Amino acid sequence: MTDWVGRTVEAEVGAVAHGGHCVSRVDGRVVFVRHALPGELVLAEITEDKGGAFCRADAVRVLRAAPERVEPPCPVAAPGLCGGCDWQHATPEFQRELKARVVEEQLRRLAGIERPVEVEALPGGPLRWRTRVRLVAGRDGRAGLRAHRSHRVVALEDCPISLPLDPVLSRRWRPGSEIEFTHDGDGQAHVREVSVVRGKRRSRQLSGGLAVQHAAGRDWKLDAHGFWQVHPAAADTFAAVVGEWASAPSGGLAWDLYAGVGLFASVLAGQVGPDGEVVAVESGRRAVRDGEAALADLAQVRWRSGRVEQVVRELPGQPDVVVLDPPRAGAGRAVVESIVESRPARVVYVACDPAALARDLATFGQAGYGLAELRAFDAFPMTHHVECVALVLPNQP
Question: Which pLDDT score is estimated for 1?
Fold first, then answer.
């Protein structure tokens, strides 16, 4: 088959697909087109072709625009440039509609679940929300982000979706180094440079290091570059939904899997009270230390450090509720099967990837648990990412 890379084709743009692109068909092949919207007619330049049934392309010219198309607020949110955003060329309302379609399609295709989805906006608008960014220094020492599916660095003058990056963008860095930037809940900037020198990985904290965050009615002190929600409104929002759906009984037992520093464990602890127990399982040792310090006043929280798929098999008792917030790949069959073997009355699943959520819901379904409620949030405006919270209950006989 002829390599199509560099070829420009006229494409009628079809449905949105998971990953920040839309589907088109050209000469019998599927073409995944970025920088396009459903219903548009575009000229698309093929950027990747591995010889299979599909290839990838960028819309380089719009011949017939969708009514939801707008001018991107960032000059490098364009073909061949920064790969950080996917939907700057669509109105915020249509971005959420596209994400809702993706969640619906993943649930239908991977879990056999037909369910209408609404993606809810978080407070603050679509710009200046990102509090955590990992940049990379190009050959000239300027910090930037990588181009889509590439190691090439696109230098930045600004990033409109992020809080101001002046401490990073105003100076030169060792070429190839990564620069981690965090803006915490008290407005403090934390900057760390990670580079490889003579084959050894070295980390240098330039400012801050211990971040302060505020959520679920508590103050948190944690590693500035450890896990915390990127959107400033996300932690409080998700904690509220988890608390509503968990409904852990007073004196009960709850599991918080992939607990991080214990955001959801703190909510569960308030529900079970001093006579109950919350088991928080987390593999990151620094996160466990930060969580133990943050929740030192809650004797009912018991921490277990280790990989969830190993620890969950050893946990005693029958939990009233299990909360899990796995990484992008999802929990996986082994973890889901261990959860259902414990027969919890309810499961609250926080997911940052709809495909992974759908696969795990399919496994729950095979074990007699079904999706009861679902909320989706636009916690990453301008990108294709979407956060979902699902309530999973045992099927009624």
Answer: 60
